[in-house]
Design brief:
Largest sheet: 10 strands, mixed
Order of helices and strands: HHEHHEEHEEHEHEEEE
Helix content: 40-55%
Structural class: alpha+beta
Distance between the termini: 69 Å
Length: about 240
């Protein structure tokens, strides 16, 4: 009996060591929450598709193409990675999951792969924290002799299809659907330093969200059949986004 217990302990320690190794190696490529969900699937398979209400966050640096053409490749990547490092830390702290980068743009989801009733609240809180961090990002840029940058953020809450897409050799956890497209389109209406959120997100996020007085406006996103009311968020609780 003692020998069996010792063997079980060795096996348990071996499994825990392997899981720790996987998390450490895969951490830079996929969030721990997504990785844990994948590892919990039967046979270690991909996360199956599901429909769920989530909050989607899209960001983009203004005039980034022009910026990349003016700077050396080394300097631009250094600037970009410093900016992304700060933004990733904030999204992680607010329990968001980054699904990918499209150039300098960030695509994140709150409320997946695990359901989260505070997804909209956390997404908007994250966005305000990100815009507030830009002051420190640009202070660092000036120290390095780099130009200041500005970021726009668009957020929408709605149903999306979520799951692992791709093939056995290359796969990623992603979100698909009309609402994903709408979140991206909302971001496209932002100015540098601005956060625009849909009415669905504003309602779901709660009373801590501070909207600019008379800041709501109707927009006509490409590919969306009707106009959409978006709201200009300037703060969260007592925190305000500084003028840039």
């Amino acid at each position: 009996m003692a020998a069996l217990q010792e063997e079980n302990e060795r096996l348990r320690a071996s499994v825990e060591s392997l899981q720790s190794f996987i998390r450490t190696r895969m951490g830079p490529y996929v969030t721990y929450e997504v990785l844990d969900e994948i590892m919990s699937q039967q046979g270690g398979g991909a996360i199956e598709g599901e429909r769920r209400e989530v909050t989607m966050l899209f960001t983009d640096i203004r005039r980034s193409t022009e910026l990349s053409e003016r700077m050396t490749a080394t300097d631009y990547i250094r600037l970009l990675n410093h900016y992304l490092s700060d933004m990733i830390d904030i999204i992680d702290a607010w329990q968001g999951n980054i699904l990918g980068f499209v150039g300098d743009a960030i695509v994140a989801v709150f409320g997946a792969p695990k359901p989260n009733e505070e997804a909209a609240f956390q997404a908007v809180g994250s966005a305000v924290a990100m815009q507030r961090r830009m002051k420190a990002v640009n202070a660092w840029n000036r120290e390095q002799g780099y130009p200041a940058i500005q970021m726009g953020i668009g957020i929408h809450t709605g149903e999306a299809i979520l799951g692992c897409v791709g093939s056995q050799t290359r796969m990623k956890y992603d979100m698909i659907g009309r609402n994903v497209n709408l979140a991206s389109r909302i971001e496209g209406f932002t100015k540098g330093g601005q956060i625009l959120v849909s009415s669905e997100t504003l309602e779901a996020a709660g009373d801590m969200v501070v909207e600019r007085p008379e800041g709501a406006m109707w927009v006509s996103p490409k590919g969306i059949q009707c106009e959409v009311l978006v709201h200009d968020v300037i703060g969260f609780g007592k925190l305000r986004i500084p003028e840039q």
